[in-house]
Request: fold
Amino acid sequence: MLATSLTVSLIQSDLHWENIPANLAMFEEKIWQIGQATDLILLPEMFTTGFSMNAAKLAEPMNLTTFKWLRQQAEQTKAVVVGSYIVQVKGQYFNRLIWMPPDGQFKIYDKRHLFRLAGEDAAYTAGTARLVVELKGWQICPMICYDLRFPIWSRQSPSLQYDLLIYLANWPLPRNHAWNTLLRARAIENLAYCVGVNRVGTDAAGKSYMGESAMLNFKGEELFYQKDEPVIATRTLDLGELRSFRQQFPFDRDADRFTVHD
Reply:
């Protein structure tokens, strides 16, 4: 029988600046504080370092420390664990999201839109392909931070390709209105659940982060929202409710058809 529910946990946390071992130890403790069965565990963008442009110093090759840690956490929790960190491949650096299921058959997504105001476009190589993965009968599309500002990259076209849209972020306080507005817009326009997980605290560059992680339904309504402080949140999403809403309000049938080119 096809499962219609998906339990999602997010971890909103401060980060230890450019300290991979400290962040891995911290998040391991937080993951075990979830305290209930869950299907999907979401960590912030660059969860091992903070939003650093020091790629040459901090990058890891695939299948090293953070990758092995993600695999271990997924295996132990029996949940998919998702986070982005700095990866080096053939002399190039990527802000790479790892989708790590308990069986170790991972998927990757490299951040498409690099934040030029912080020099991310100079330090990292942009991704070229969107990722949609299946979990318990759900189609899920994970993205990273600045991708949120670009609706075409997130848009469901030419059909309803996913049921849940995810953004892992280091989104700073001065632009929190955009974060909150765009998360809700992405949910509404794509007829999909939308989850955004952000960090809190202040980094070594003096940038403050407001959290405001949220889980939203397909109407843009809040299922969870928390600002300013660390939090571990778990909610169960209902695929049956989503499908019923899509049948009643088939807005996707009138959507513009398009393709995305580099």
